[in-house]
Design goal:
The chain has 304 residues and is α+β, with helices and mostly antiparallel strands. It folds into two domains: 9-126, 2-Layer Sandwich (D-amino Acid Aminotransferase, Chain A, domain 1), CATH 3.30.470; 137-290, D-amino Acid Aminotransferase, subunit A, domain 2 (D-amino Acid Aminotransferase, Chain A, domain 2). The protein has helices spanning 29-33, 55-68, 77-91, 162-174, 218-229, 241-246, 277-290, and strands spanning 9-12, 15-18, 37-38, 41-46, 49-53, 96-104, 118-126, 137-145, 179-183, 189-192, 196-201, 204-208, 234-237, 249-254, 258-265, 268-269, 301-303. The longest helix is centred in the N-terminal third of the chain and has 15 residues, at 77-91.
């Protein structure tokens, strides 16, 4: 993802603006308290033009996250979908990452949000590969416990939730690893810092069930459905941390990173220390699905 945003156009409350003109007060409530809701969506170049992958599913999750936090927007599902299509088209990007974000446009200190106006912006950013090392990640089991629904609603993509992820990945990087893997309060594997997790054992695919404080990821669901179409058995269940040490393969997945192979967990080599055959096969098939070369669900691609 590049750093220059000088030529990017953003959609903000019904208007298209240059990126540099989209500014909020420094005492913005959502910046102070993490009270924003976001989504991460990808668009890809296909043989039929640029298509946004699983747009409706992402927007519906965006709206569910808002509902959990009692955030109210003047924009409904179809208005947000059309705004995303409009801003991607306006930027003329072939491959991009799209960030819708709803926040409280308010510059007062008090924490309560009654009477505060919400504002919605949508920013597309050009993106090809998110990770250069997508087949050889080294991960550390974090000493920080994954949040659970007793403390924060884990199925909402809220800004404040990701402080938990941030501190975990900082710890991993400081110790020479690429990424963190988080354990839930019961001692079971939850997910990466911002990615769902899968492991392969004896030709079967396993992923933490949602009672392990894992996000109900859209990429996670995509992989489960691809696997079942290719006669690969999938089980959603609780996973013990030591299973990561003895697995044949481990990989992380998410909208931005797509599928990234893990070759080391806590200094222990996963499998033979190289990206596994099933991981590679799923990543290749996933690339075909998002680019319209292999159909799982005809409604997954929205052409710009």
């Amino acid at each position: 993802m590049g750093n220059s945003k000088d030529n990017i156009k953003v959609w903000w409350d019904g208007k298209i603006l240059p990126f540099q003109e989209a500014k909020v007060p420094i005492l913005n409530h959502s910046m102070q308290y993490g009270s924003g809701i976001f989504e991460g969506i990808r668009a890809y170049e296909t043989d039929r033009g640029v298509a946004i992958f699983r747009l409706e599913d992402h927007v519906r999750r965006f709206l569910r996250s808002m509902k959990i936090y009692r955030m109210v927007s003047e924009y409904g599902e179809m208005e947000i979908i059309n705004a995303i299509l409009e801003i991607v088209k306006a930027n003329n990007f072939e491959n991009c990452y799209i960030r819708p974000f709803i926040f409280y446009f308010d510059d007062n200190i008090p924490l309560p949000v009654e009477g505060k106006k919400t504002s919605l912006y949508i920013v597309p950013l050009p993106m090809g590969k998110y990770l250069e090392n997508a087949s050889g990640l080294k991960c550390k089991i974090s000493s920080w416990t994954r949040i659970n629904s007793d403390s924060l609603p884990i199925q909402a993509k809220a800004s404040g939730n990701y402080l938990n992820s941030l501190i975990a990945v900082m710890e991993a990087r400081e110790n020479g690893f690429d990424e963190a893997i988080m354990i839930d309060r019961d001692g079971y594997v939850g997910e990466g810092s911002a990615e769902n997790l899968f492991l392969v054992e004896d030709g079967m695919l396993f992923t933490p069930s949602l009672d392990s404080s894992a996000l109900k990821g859209i990429t996670r669901d995509t992989i489960i459905r691809i696997a079942k179409m290719t006669d690969l058995e999938v089980q959603e269940r609780r996973i013990h941390r030591e299973e990561l040490y003895t697995a044949d393969e481990v990989f992380l997945c998410g909208t931005a990173i797509e599928i990234a192979g893990v070759i080391n967990v806590d200094g222990r080599m996963v499998g033979n220390g190289k990206e596994g055959v099933i991981t590679r096969r799923l990543r290749e098939r996933y690339g075909e699905v998002v680019r319209g070369k292999f159909a799982v669900d005809p409604g997954w691609l929205n052409f710009v």
